[in-house]
Amino acid sequence: MSRLFLVWLAGLGIVIAGCVGMSTSEDKPIQQPGSLASVCGGKWEMRLLRLNGNAVAVSEPESFTFLCNNDGQAMGKSGVNTYRGSMQITDTGQILWDTASFASTKKAGPPPLMEQESQYLRALSGTRQAFVKSGGARLILRDIPGDIYIEYIKAEH
Predict the structure, then answer these.
(1) How confident is residue 2, by pLDDT bands cut at 50, 70 and 90?
(2) What is the pLDDT of residues 105-117, one digit of tens each?
(3) Average pLDDT, whole number, for the chain?
(4) Torsion of the alpha carbons at 107, 109, 115 and 121, rounded to the nearest 10
(5) In sequence order, what are the residues at sequence separation of 6 or more whose Cβ sits closer than 8 angstroms to the Cβ of residue 60?
(6) Cβ partners under 8 Å of residue 57, min gap 6
(7) What pLDDT shows up at residue 25?
(8) Cα gap 152→155, rounded to integer Å
(9) CB–CB of 52/147 below 8 Å?
(10) Interatomic CA distance for residues 143 and 128, integer angstroms
(11) Half-sphere exposure for 47 (CA within 13 Å, toward CB)
C-alpha cells in the first residue's frame, strides 16, 4: 500500500509541476495602446460597433473600413460614402482628431444603410483611444468611458 501511495504522490507532483509552469497570459488576448506604426499602414474592416454600451446591428460590416498613413491622414468607407480626416495618435494610444479636416462624400443610399453610416461617422469622430490586440490583428477605437466602441479586424489583401 505504501508503494502505491508513493507512485500516486509522484504522479501528483508531476501534475502540479506541469501546472505551475503554465502561463495564462498566452491564453488571453493582449491589448496594447495603439501607435501610428501599429494602427496605420493597413486596411481595417469593422466587426463591431457599440454606442452607449449597446451593440449596433450593421448589415454590411465589411463596407465600414478604416485606414491611415504615417502622416496621420485617416480615410475609409462609411457604408455608402467615403470619409477622410487628419489625426494624431500619441505613444499612449490617445487619438487627437482634427475635426476641421473631417470630410465625407455625399452619395445617397438605402435609408437603413444611411442611418448606420451616420451612427458610424458620429462614433468614429467621438473616439479618443486606440488599442491593438491579438498580435496586431484587431484594432479598437473607443472613447474614454467606453460608451463608443468600434472593433476592426485586419483586412485581407
Answers:
(1) low
(2) 999 999 999 999 9
(3) 86
(4) -30
(5) 79, 113
(6) none
(7) 44
(8) 9
(9) yes
(10) 5
(11) 11
Q: In terms of Cα–Cα distance, which of 100, 137, 141 is closest to 124?
A: 141
Both ends of the chain: CA-CA distance in Å? 65
CA distance 94 to 17: 42
Please provide the DSSP assignment of 88-149 as one string.
EE-TT-BEEEEEEEEEE------HHHHHHHHHHHHHHHH--EEEEETTTTEEEEE-SSSSEE
C-alpha cell at position 28:
488571453
For the record, the C-alpha cell of 42 comes out as 493597413
CA distance 82 to 89: 21
CA atoms of 15 and 29, how far apart (whole Å): 26
The model's pLDDT over 66-103, given as tens digits with 9 standing for 90+, comes to 999 999 999 999 999 999 999 999 989 999 999 899 99
